[in-house]
Specification:
mainly alpha
Length: 263
Amino acid sequence: MGLREAFASVIASPGTLVPVLREDPGEVQARFGLSDAELAVLAGVDGESYAFMAEESAAKRRIHLSVGIPRTVDELAEHHPEVLDAFLTTTRLLEDPDEPMGIVRACEHLLAFDGLPSATADFGRFELDQYLLLGDSVAAEACRPGPPVRIPHADGVPLVLSPAVRVATYGHDVTDPGAPVRLPREEVTVLLQRAWDAPLRAFRIGAGTGLLLAGCDGTHTGREAARHADLPEAGALDLLERLVSGDIVRAAPALVHQGRPTV
């Protein structure tokens, strides 16, 4: 704890902590481990200034959320405004030098916020996964147009997912046409794929395909991935051929050569 944490806490809840700071400064000093000089700095800010900073902080956080998970924020504003308001006005978030904009951190904190409906949280995670994939420079490079690649020696080549792909499982059907308003409670596995010249794609995939892709971890060949998924080998290898052709699965990087992909 320290002065930064104390400031963040007072700004998050000025109506609660400012009176304590005025009436029992020692309690605040002990709670945050402040020196006398740090306590003087904290107490030197008037209540109106703290209230103004709280409003500014909430507005900034609302902007960050609307960038990362816009449809989730709209859903909360329309159907659960009390949850969104409670998050914006009570959450303590410190500035992170590794993420100056604070978008991802704000979204992650909202999705873990007490009182957020589980279906809405699932859809928010789906949106955030898309935002992270679209902002990933390695994924951007991976989907850049280039010559096809060949996977040699089909029996012994480790396979790996393309860096432009993410696979995630959610407890509600985030792909339902009515989402995020309508989110049936159903576990679904979704494949996200970033494309060079098209919008990000989201495919709902079956459990077997999900297990097959989980086996493509850079250490398993196509046949080993098929056994990992407990799928018939011939059908699994045929599916992997199509996944390679769609640049969803690749050979482990050291084994990539010029030519047409095979598994």
